[in-house]
Amino acid sequence: MTMTMQNRALLDRTIDDLLLQLRGLVLVGKVLEQRGATAAEVEEHAREAERVRAELAHLIGDEGPQLAA
Q: Which of 11, 18, 29, 44 sits most deeply, having the most CB atoms within 10 A of its CB?
């Protein structure tokens, strides 16, 4: 199955946005830990990071990026 250039560009952007979001969540989680945030606050960021990771895995797929199709 081939993707149109427009669909590929949208998927590329979605993946880039999710990667940026994930990076921010991980960095903020570390800052929260360093500043003595509650375990619940740290866990909330960890859960959201895991959700974003799962979304990325779904978009990219087990066989590598679907963008190469």
A: 29
